[in-house]
Amino acid sequence: MSVSRSKAQERAERHAAAQAAARRRERRRNLLTGLAVVAVIAALVGGGFLINRANDSAGAIEDAAASGTASSDHSLAVGSADAPHSIVIYEDFLCPLCGIVEQTAGERLTALAEAGKVRLEYRPMVVLDRLGPYSADALNAFFVVQDAAGDEVAKAFHDLLFADQPSESQTTFPDADWLVQKAVEAGADEDEVRAGIEDDARADDVAAATKAAGAAGVTGTPTILLDGQVFRDGRTYEEVADNLVAAVQ
């Protein structure tokens, strides 16, 4: 009987720990910075998340810091620097809200960038490292691919990482072999990227990109800047993405 009670107690403790971890993840997701910390109320609405318009719905960044994000040594840009609009997106490859923005607007924004209507710049960073190594591993792989195969292949790799994005709630994440497979699918040469992906060759750049984002005031993803200002137009992340496209068409 004591063994039975012990197992039941262990199950209860595991359940309580899982609930506590879920609460911690939710609290972290809702943090915003500025002169004050405000709560963002998130709930599923029509397949998306409800956004309080009074808050910074597109990430965590102070408006005053936006002017300091004009350039980056750790980014991927699509489109002409002379385009009439600029969009900067800070993102984490594991961030589900980043995935919503990318799946909703990614192709359309890319097409607009290629048509000369906007300069689109992705600045990936690591935010969700507390959940495991995937965020940093994916960003390392992104930099390896960009260095070895160029921006066009890196963009294809970027898009594949979001198209096949793992869930942040899973306990086992894709490994180096999976990242190599995606890199090759994007157009990279396996011999040129495997060692760098397996050995975390760009770990310093991963740290530098994340540090630079933090220095700019970014503490959450996705953070979206349109023409240097935080973009927050929408009640759901789908709406934010749709309205972002409409703003630069």
What key phrases describe this protein's structure?
8 helices, 7 strands, 5-stranded mixed β-sheet, 10% strand, alpha+beta, globular, 249 residues, Glutaredoxin, two-stranded antiparallel ribbon
How does this structure look, described?
The chain is of the alpha+beta class and 249 residues long. The chain has a single domain, classed as Glutaredoxin. The chain has eight helices and seven strands; from the N terminus they run H-E-E-E-E-H-E-H-H-H-H-H-E-E-H. It has a five-stranded mixed sheet, with helices on both faces. A two-stranded antiparallel sheet has the order 1-2. The longest helix is centred in the N-terminal third of the chain and has 28 residues, at 2-29. The model is unreliable at 24-70 (pLDDT under 50).
Topology:
Elements: H1 2-29, E1 44-45, E2 48-49, E3 76-78, E4 86-91, H2 96-114, E5 119-124, H3 134-149, H4 151-163, H5 176-186, H6 190-198, H7 203-215, E6 223-226, E7 229-230, H8 237-248
Parallel strand pairs: 4-5
Antiparallel strand pairs: 1-2, 3-5, 4-6, 6-7
- What name does CATH use for the topology? Glutaredoxin
Q: CATH first level: which class?
A: Alpha Beta
Largest sheet: 5 strands, mixed
Helix content: 40-55%
Q: Which parts are unreliable, with pLDDT below 50 for 5 consecutive residues or more?
A: 24-70
Look at the helices and sheets and give the structural class: alpha+beta
Question: How far apart lie the N and C ends?
Answer: 69 Å
The CATH homologous superfamily corresponds to: Glutaredoxin
Number of helices: 8
Mean pLDDT: 81
CATH architecture: 3-Layer(aba) Sandwich
> Which word captures the global form?
globular
Beta-strand residue percentage: 5-15%
What is the total number of structural domains?
A: 1
Strand order of the largest sheet: 3-5-4-6-7
Radius of gyration: 19 Å
